[in-house]
Amino acid sequence: MNFLKSIYVMLYITALIIISIFAGMKAIESEHVIAWLGVLLTTAPFMTVLMWMMAIKNISRTSSRLPIISIMALIGLVMTLWSWNQQQASFLAVKLAAAGLIGFLIYSYWYSSFAKRSSKIMFGKPLPSFSLQNTKGDIISSANFIGQANVIMFYRGNWCPLCMAQIKKIAAQYKALKAANVRVILVSPQPHKNTISLAKKFDAGLEFYTDEGNKTARALGIKHSFGVPMGMQALGYDSETVLPTVVITDAKGKVIWLHETDNYRIRPDPKVFLEVLHEHGIG
After folding, report:
1. What is the pLDDT of residue 204?
2. Helix axis angle, 161-172 relative to 270-279, nearest 10°?
3. Looking at the structure, do residues 138 and 273 belong to the same domain, yes or no?
4. Domain termination residue (choose one: 78, 111, 144)
5. CB neighbours (10 Å) of residue 279?
């Protein structure tokens, strides 16, 4: 199933671009403007949001189903149907609008959601032992994280705009977390050079680690097979990644908070981390 998702998302994005360009050209040259504007309403809004997210990397979460985009796409389909019925517009516009709406619904309800998660992370208990590679190339045992409270975030990689936005927001909260004597540990199975590059960009005391071979994610039960969109392998990414996960542990290494999203676009606000820490008398 995940393999099909990795193929679908790249085909869907490619189709969005092609259909949007085609519909835009038709809206300019055709007399049936309403029909082709309707097609654009089923493809362009989501494509615009996606491109904006990738460009600014400042949006760390969205609503679960993006209802406004769904409504716009439905209105677009209605426009094409009306134009076809009343103005004898090409039925091709109706087909493309229907494809745009259905494609988005598949993305929103199927692709964006994860299957039922069953990690090995348990409240009130220490995390299973694991090892990570720091930016200097040294292998660090999870035992080194005991002695201080930790916010540990497992993110998919530099290619994920939501992950990058989430890290930006954590960096903005870093002074408050440091004042509470809390370490911020960011972990990804991406190529190590990408981790080093990201660490240099956020040189604010955050600790970046590479989970080489995704071994830690497997040990914790949070690996995501075929979680990387098909085609990203050309940039050095493996097909397997990690399910976005945030864990907060106390100074004894016990888990006091856990966020395992069932939708990759739903992420916790870093402000919640401070609230959790304060509730447990940390900082």
Report:
1. 72
2. 50
3. yes
4. 111
5. 10
Give the number of C-alpha atoms closer than 13 A to the C-alpha of residue 17, restricted to the C-beta side.
7
Q: 207-210 and 131-134: which strand pairing?
A: antiparallel
Q: Which of 59, 76, 111 is the last residue of a domain?
A: 111
Question: Would you give the end-to-end CA distance of the chain in angstroms?
Answer: 43
Instruction: Report the chain (283 residues): mean pLDDT per 10 consecutive residues.
Output: 97 98 97 97 97 94 96 98 97 98 98 92 96 97 97 98 96 93 97 97 90 97 97 96 98 97 95 96 89
User: What per-residue string of b and e applies to 28-67 under the rule 16 or more CB within 10 Å gives b?
Assistant: eeeebbbbbbbbbbbbbbbbeeeeebeeebebbbbeeebe
**The predicted structure's pLDDT at residue 95:** 98
Number of domains, the chain:
2
| pLDDT for res 118 | 87
Q: Residue 85's Cα: distance from chain center in Å?
A: 40
User: What is the C-alpha radius of gyration for the chain, rounded to an integer number of angstroms?
Assistant: 22
Residues 105 and 137 in one domain: no
- Could you give the residue ranges of the DSSP H alpha helices within 90-237? 91-106, 161-172, 174-179, 192-201, 215-220
* Same domain as 254, residue 155: yes
Q: What are the beta bridge partners of residue 113?
A: 263
Domain span at 60: 2-111
273 Cβ neighbours under 8 A, 6+ residues apart: 151, 170, 173, 177, 182, 246, 248, 257
Angle at 186 between CA 159 and CA 206, to 5 degrees: 110
Tell me, yes or no, whether 93 and 216 share the same domain.
no
The pLDDT assigned to 205 comes to 86
Same domain, 29 and 86: yes
Is 245 part of a structural domain of the chain? yes
